[in-house]
Amino acid sequence: MEVQERVAVPIFTEVDRDVFLNEVYPGRSPAILRGVDLGPCVDRWTVEYLALKGGQREVKIHVSSVPQMDFLHKNFIYRTLPFDEFVRRAAETKHSDFFLAEEESYYLRSLGEDVRKEPADLSRQFPDLAEDFHTPRFFEPDRFFSSVFRISSCGLQLWTHYDVMDNLLAQVTGRKRVALYRPQDALHLYLNGDKSEVLDIDAPDLKRFPEFIKAQRYDCVLEPGDLLFIPALWFHNTLALHFGVGVNVFWRHLPAEAYDKKDPYGNKDPVAAARALQTLERALHTLDELPAEYRDFYGRRMVQRIQNRTYCHNPDSETTIPRSLSHKHGRVYKDL
C-alpha cells in the first residue's frame, strides 16, 4: 500500500522580527516559531477567565454531531449562544445541554461587527481579552488585515483549505495538530473552490481520490504558546488534540489593490487571479464549439502554454525545505 510522503515542519526558537524576516519568511514554507512572547494570554485564558471576560456577548458558532467538520457538505449547523455558555460547553466532552447530541462538537470563528463588510478584529470584538494577547510585530502595521479568535472542542477537525494571505496561527491554549500541503500539490487535493474534497486525510478513500497519495504532507503539533507561520496558498487541516484557544493574524503581503475589497474573510482569490479564471472559463466555452478531437488537441496546447508561462518549477519534482529553513547562528532547528 502506498504511503503519503511526510515532512516535519521545522521549529525555530529565539525568533524576533529580524530572524523572521531574514531566515523564515523568505523560504515561503511553514515554520513553528517557539518562544515568541504572546502576552499573559497563555497563562490567563482558562475556561473560567474566558467566560468571565467574554461575558454574555452572543456569538455565532458551528455545532456538529461528529468531530470532523465538512464545510462542502455542511455536516454542521449554526447556532447562537452567550459567549460564556459556549466556552463552558466547548470545554466539555459530554453535554447536559445540547443542540444535536450529548457529544456534539463546537467551533467558534470570530466575525466582524458587520460580517459582510468588516474583517474580524480581536481588539474590537473582545477588547478585554485582546489586552492579554500581544500581536507579533513581524509585518508592517498598515498591512494588518484581521485577527481571528478561534475556540474549538477537543477532537474537532477542520476541513483542508487555503488562504490568500500570509498568516500566523497563535496556539494560546491546548495542543493542535496541523497538516499542511504545498500549493504545488493543488492538483492532487481534489479542490472545490478553496477547499479539498478529501475530508479524512488520515484514511483517505483512494478509490475516490487516487491522486491524493501524491501530495506531500507537512506535519506538526503546536504546543501552548507556539506560533505557526502559514504562507499564503498553503493548504492546512487542523485537529484539536485538546480544548483549545487560538488567534489567527492575517496580513496583506501583496499590494492592497491585489485583493478583493469586498472580502471580509480574506479567502477570495486575488483580483487578477479571479479575472484569469473567468477568462479561462470563457475560453473553455469557446472550445466547446469544436469537435472532441479538436477540443482535446487545443486543450492540451493550452495546458502546455499555461505550464510554460506560470509554473515556477516542475510540479512533479520533489521539494525540500529551502536553505533558509536550516540551522543558523546557533538557533535551534529540530524535527518533530
UniProtKB/TrEMBL annotation:
SUPFAM superfamilies assigned: Clavaminate synthase-like
Protein keywords: Dioxygenase, Iron, Metal-binding, Oxidoreductase, tRNA processing
GO molecular function, one term: tRNA binding
Matching InterPro entries: Cupin_8, JmjC_dom
UniProt-listed SMART domains: JmjC (SM00558)
Cofactor(s) listed in the protein's UniProt record: Fe(2+)
Keyword tRNA processing appears in the UniProt entry: yes
Pfam families, sorted: Cupin_8
GO BP terms in the entry: wybutosine biosynthetic process
Domain spans labelled JmjC: 115-268
Tree of life domain: Eukaryota
Pathway in which the depicted protein is active: tRNA modification; wybutosine-tRNA(Phe) biosynthesis
Complexes and interactors: Homodimer.
Name by which UniProt lists this protein: tRNA wybutosine-synthesizing protein 5
